[in-house]
Design goal:
Helices cover about 10% and strands about 35% of the residues. By secondary structure, the chain is mainly β. The relative contact order is 0.11.
Length: about 220
């Protein structure tokens, strides 16, 4: 009954099993997992979002995912976690269950609203409002516009691409000198831009909301 597919076209199918799940030096008992018998994904996946977004069985029954099960078994006091991906070229990062590592970020943490899925009227993903986007370079700054602001976006650690409206994506490509390559289905830009001083500022939740700067490297 286990079946799941992702935006990039990858998928997995198989059976549900229950077993002891070991992570680090911690053992989580009675853990429900999908055993992939047919898949094109070369690694294991662990869901750490909302339990309702886990691959549910054909009967639609829900089961506690890893953070929920860890909290229920007293291994952590809260289902909160913090994820540090490290530099793009690094071989390791870390994930801290049940807390936040204050050494791993700059500025102040800010609470913003997470919205329900408009189709299911339930919390299934970290759906938030992207309210502005600015581009900064040596020559100055540009505010990028979109008729779709505020834009509903999902903060997703498992997605390798950013999905934005066409009008906004086109402006981003122009800012960095990127060209859309039809055969690749993606925009490409010179590697020399990596060493440029430019960056983008993503603002969430309106004026006064958190702003995250993403540098060109």
């Amino acid at each position: 009954a286990f079946s799941i597919s992702y935006v990039d076209g990858s998928s997995a199918r198989g059976d549900y099993i229950t077993d002891v799940f070991e992570i680090g030096d911690t053992a989580v008992s009675n853990m429900t997992m999908g055993l992939a018998l047919k898949t094109d994904i070369p690694y294991g996946l662990v869901g750490v979002g909302y339990a309702r977004n886990e691959a549910s069985s054909s009967t639609g029954s829900l089961y506690p995912n890893l953070p929920v099960q860890m909290q229920r078994q007293g291994l952590i006091s809260t289902v909160a976690y913090s994820l540090w991906l490290n530099d793009l070229d690094a071989s390791t990062g870390n994930i801290l269950f049940g807390g936040i590592d204050t050494e791993k970020y700059h500025g102040d943490l800010t609470r913003i609203n997470v919205y329900k899925d408009p189709r299911t009227q339930d919390f299934t993903s970290f759906l938030v409002a992207l309210t502005s986007l600015q581009a900064f370079s040596d020559s100055g700054s540009d505010g990028l516009s979109s008729k779709e602001f505020p834009i509903s976006v999902v903060l997703d650690s498992g997605t390798t691409l950013s999905f934005l409206p066409d009008d906004l994506a086109t402006q981003i490509w122009k800012e960095v000198g990127a060209v859309f390559e039809q055969e690749l289905g993606a925009a490409i830009l010179p590697c020399s831009r990596e060493s440029g001083g430019g960056y983008f500022s993503f603002e969430f939740a309106g004026p006064g909301g958190p702003v995250i700067n993403v540098t060109m490297d």
